[in-house]
Write a structure and sequence with these properties.
CATH superfamily of the largest domain: Queuine tRNA-ribosyltransferase-like
Low-confidence stretches: 1-63
Largest sheet: 5 strands, parallel
Mean pLDDT: 87
Strand order of the largest sheet: 4-15-14-13-12
CATH architecture of the largest domain: Alpha-Beta Barrel
Strand content: 15-25%
Number of strands: 17
CATH class of the largest domain: Alpha Beta
Radius of gyration: 22 Å
CATH topology of the largest domain: TIM Barrel
Helix content: 40-55%
Length: 440
């Protein structure tokens, strides 16, 4: 993705108002062609004009994807924003359902759009690279065309999945050599190849290739992994700038902050990432077993350093309580497999706490699945019926629980946005979190 100055003819002076206007006109024309003007992103507002002021080398980000802050909570670092992408506007704070292999388990695109009311869905580079492969994805017109999900998408770089293959991978400066969990075949993920795969997938937001460390970890190795992640980021940026999107719309690349639970490493990594002037930034390497207090401390420190005018993405987090506490620290984006994974195992989240529907206590409970929920499944089905479905190992039970949990997460961040906007977020969050952590 090219920056503002890259769009200016070589013989033009970028500080000349006429040259800037010419570029804005051309950019607006291009935006009209892909439907962004209808989303309010034109040269008449900040979308193109401010780019000349903030973009520095390597300038791959701020062309047609924008983030705007719409409200701030007076009692915390929480904020409401909007991410403008080629596939739609994403309100923040936002939770992303995880569609690792091109599908959110047990929940199809229609339910995601109309019942869950998802705005942004995550796919995974590692899994999609192995199956169905980039050739199939390119023939389908990218992951959007392949899955029929028409909204915005984000792809994880696969760094976490490679990290989880501890007995099947070798990390070196070139990249990570690993064996497929499917057939044992050998592959190499490098910063360059991961950028190429994410171009083929075609998500609106792509992630830089990083090394995620386990917890606990010795500080010496945490530093080595962090510095390698920084070197890989520079290689990612070079490759990203040298390639073009394949499906007619812009993609943004997010760097990832690492450093385990060491405060000085986290600060150093956040400074390094912030200096890249990316359109958005991610916090990785947390929610890997560390105590919640350490996760919150690292998140707060990093959020204080990362640019306030760019979205902040806390990767792989987490429980409903984790999400609310992290919103209070200034995080805008979240993803986690918990709603669907736990749902497939019979656990649902409610505002009164978590419910294990496999337990015998629900066998004769004919109350609604969740009287406070607004998913189609919440009032239609009873706890006793869904308990029966799990005892009988019926697929419908897994779908109902997953659908409910995803909608619960999306409704939670929807209310968080409303509470931030009216100034009541902190008191609402403090009263709700203790209830969310109860087991019913």
């Amino acid at each position: 993705m090219r920056g503002f100055r890259d769009q200016i003819p070589r013989d033009a002076n970028p500080t000349n108002p006429r040259a800037v206007n010419d570029v804005n006109a051309e950019a607006t024309s291009k935006a009209e062609a892909i439907g962004l003007v209808n989303q309010g992103i034109t040269s008449s507002n900040h979308a193109f004009i401010t780019t000349a002021k903030v973009v520095q080398e390597p300038k791959p980000y701020l062309c047609r994807v924008q983030f705007e802050i719409q409200a701030k909570d007076p009692h915390s670092a929480a904020r409401v924003g909007a991410l403008h992408t080629a596939h739609g506007v994403v309100p923040t704070p936002i939770f992303m359902p995880v569609g690792t292999q091109g599908t959110v388990k047990a929940v199809g695109p229609d339910l995601l759009e109309h019942d869950v009311r998802a705005h942004l869905v995550l796919g995974n580079t590692y899994h999609l690279y192995l199956r169905p492969g980039t050739e199939v994805l390119e023939q389908a017109g990218g992951l959007h065309g392949f899955t029929t999900w028409s909204g915005p998408m984000l792809t994880d770089s696969g760094g976490f999945q490679v990290y989880s293959l501890e007995d099947r991978r070798k990390i070196r400066e070139e990249g990570v050599k690993f064996q497929s969990h499917i057939d044992g075949s050998t592959h190499l993920f490098s910063p360059e190849s991961v950028m190429d795969v994410q171009r083929s997938i075609g998500a609106d937001i792509a992630m830089a290739f990083d090394e995620c460390t386990s917890y606990p970890i010795e500080k010496k190795y945490a530093r080595e992994a962090m510095e390698r992640t920084h070197r890989w980021l520079d290689r990612c940026l070079v490759r990203w700038n040298a390639t073009e999107p394949k499906y007619g719309f812009e993609q943004a690349l997010f760097p990832i902050v690492q450093g385990s639970t060491f405060s000085d490493l986290r600060a150093e990594s956040a400074e390094f990432v912030a200096a890249k002037n990316a359109w958005g930034n991610a916090i990785g390497g947390l929610s890997v077993g560390e105590p919640h207090d350490e996760m919150y401390a690292m998140t707060a420190e990093v959020c204080a350093i990362l640019p306030a005018d760019r979205p902040r993405y806390l990767m792989g987090v987490g429980t409903p309580a984790n999400i609310l506490e992290s919103i209070a620290l200034g995080v805008d984006m979240f993803d986690c497999v918990m709603p669907t994974r736990n749902g497939r195992n019979g656990q649902i989240f409610t505002r009164q706490g978590t419910v294990n529907l496999r337990n015998a206590k629900w066998a004769r409970d004919f109350s609604p699945l969740d009287p406070d929920g607004d998913s189609a499944v919440d009032a239609r089905y009873t706890k006793a019926y869904v308990h029966h479905l799990f005892r009988a190992d019926e697929a419908l039970g897994r779908q109902i629980a997953s659908q409910h949990n995803l909608r619960f997460y999306l409704a939670l961040v929807e209310e968080a946005r409303a509470r931030i906007a009216d100034g009541s977020f902190r008191s609402w969050k403090d009263a709700l979190v203790p209830k969310l952590t109860q087991r019913l």
